Each structure stands twice: as structure tokens, then as C-alpha cells.
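User: Hey, my collaborator sent me this sequence without any context and asked if I could get a structure. I don't really work with proteins. Can you help?
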Amino acid sequence: MDSPTTQERKVTVACPFCGRLNRVDLARAADHPKCGECGRPILLDRPLALSDASFERVIADAQVPVLVDFYADWCGPCKMVAPIMDELARSRMGSVLIAKLDTDRNQQTAQRFQIASIPTVMVFRDGKPVAKQVGALPRPGYEQLIDKAMQ
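Assistant: No problem. I've predicted the 3D structure and written it out in C-alpha cell form, which is a compact way to encode the shape of the chain:
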């Protein structure tokens, strides 16, 4: 029988290969879930790419905190933050969803959250923003944002 915390760790994520939205139980993330459409792996040990089309659904459906890195490919500080996000996705897999949104390709969502500087990292809980950091931080700073959102 599942514990209450296990039941509350489901997320909706887009398949990185075909784009289909899939409901995934993070308690079983180590079992390497597969896309219901194309059968390819849904990789939860790295940041998941969000788009204007998938953002709202992923954030609203998540039963765990979602950390979103708003970035652009040309941004130097964003490139410094990227490996930290990779590490967080691996170390927090199953308890937090780490995602990224390219602000150049997804301007509607960036404008909605008034992203004026990048990198900007926001943590969402229950579909709402609960923490925001503008500018790069070392890993412990992002860990604190996540921990605060989990309280």
C-alpha cells in the first residue's frame, strides 16, 4: 500500500522526443518511466524542457515543488547555472521537478512571469510561484529555495 507522500508525488511532463504529456509518479522515477506515445524514456534525472504550450499544465499538475530555470542559450551566467540545475535534477529526483524554459523561444510565459533578467529561477508549489531568484547563485542558494518551498 502506498503512503500518503507517495500518492502526492505525481507530475505531468512532456516527452522530450515526441512532446506528448505523460503523468509520471516520481516515487517510481528510478524505474525509468516511458512515454505512453512513443515508448522512449522520460528522463527525470535532468532538467525537463518546458514550452509555452506545456508550462501551465506541468506547473498546475505537479504534486511536488517545481523549480524552473528561465534562461537563454546566449546568456553567460545561464551557462554557469546549467550544471547546477543538472546536479539538482539528479540529487532531488523523485522529490522535486527541475525544469527549464528558454525565454527566447517561449516569450509568452516569460512575459507572464515578468522575466526581465536571466537567469531567473522560480519555484512553484500547488501551481503558484513561491520563490524567485534573479541572477546566478551557487548550488546551496538553489537548495535553500527548494527547501523553503517544501515547508
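In plain terms: The helical segments are 4-7, 52-61, 76-91, 107-112, 139-150. You can pass these C-alpha cells on to your collaborator as they are.
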